[in-house]
UniProtKB/TrEMBL annotation:
Short name of any one Pfam family annotated for the protein: MarR_2
UniProt protein name: MarR family transcriptional regulator
Domain of life: Bacteria
SMART domains, per database record: HTH_MARR
Keywords: DNA-binding, Transcription, Transcription regulation
GO molecular function annotations of the record: DNA binding; DNA-binding transcription factor activity
Biological processes annotated in GO: response to stress
InterPro entries membership: HTH_MarR-typ, MarR/SlyA-like, Tscrpt_reg_MarR-type_CS, WH-like_DNA-bd_sf, WH_DNA-bd_sf
């Protein structure tokens, strides 16, 4: 029996999006609000997950963007660090946003920012030992937190959802053309 067949025969728990869909069905029966069933849930799930992630990052004295910079440096595999430009491209934020994140991380002692001896116009950003230790602890806790967030889904469901979301992202053009930094999957 398929998942959809099993769901049709069983009572399915309702969420806030169900109420929105019912309200639209009454208010505008001429419209099909079914896209809201996906995007509304995706939006709500993202918002709730982000709240959980923010809480975890704060336990390590980090903001989301700071975690992203440290994680990018750690997973890059380059002990010498990355250029500020590579960090900006991998995080898909403006160079100004990366500069602000780097300023905070330098002040906290988690990264260094030095001129590249081969090209004095290029800034190289590298983890300090304290930054490496912090991101190693934070990423382990982050993965545990993500497992907890996804615990309602069994591993097969998680794989299916990941594949579906990958297809959606690729169809939107977001990931197919995204710049990659060294070490990105």
């Amino acid at each position: 029996m398929s998942n959809s067949s099993a769901l049709k025969g069983a009572a399915v728990a309702r969420d806030a999006v169900d109420l929105v869909l019912e309200q639209w069905a009454r208010a505008r029966p001429d419209l099909d609000p079914s896209p809201m069933s996906v995007l509304g849930r995706l939006s709500r799930a993202t918002r709730l997950a982000e709240r959980e992630l923010k809480s975890l990052f704060s336990e390590f004295g980090l903001e989301r963007g700071e975690f992203d910079v440290l994680a990018t440096l750690r997973r890059s595999g380059s002990p010498d660090g990355l250029t500020a430009g590579m960090l900006a491209r991998s995080s898909m934020v403006t160079s100004g946003a990366v500069t602000n994140r780097l300023d905070r991380l330098v002040a906290k002692g988690y990264v260094t920012r030095d001129l590249d001896p081969a090209n004095r116009r290029t800034v190289i950003v590298a983890l300090t030992p304290a930054g490496r230790d912090l991101i190693d602890r934070a990423v382990a806790a982050h993965l545990d937190n993500e497992r907890r967030i996804l615990a309602a889904l069994d591993p097969h469901q998680q794989d299916e959802l990941a594949a579906i979301l990958r297809s959606l992202l690729l169809s939107l053009g977001d990931e197919a053309d995204a710049p990659r930094s060294p070490g990105d999957p």
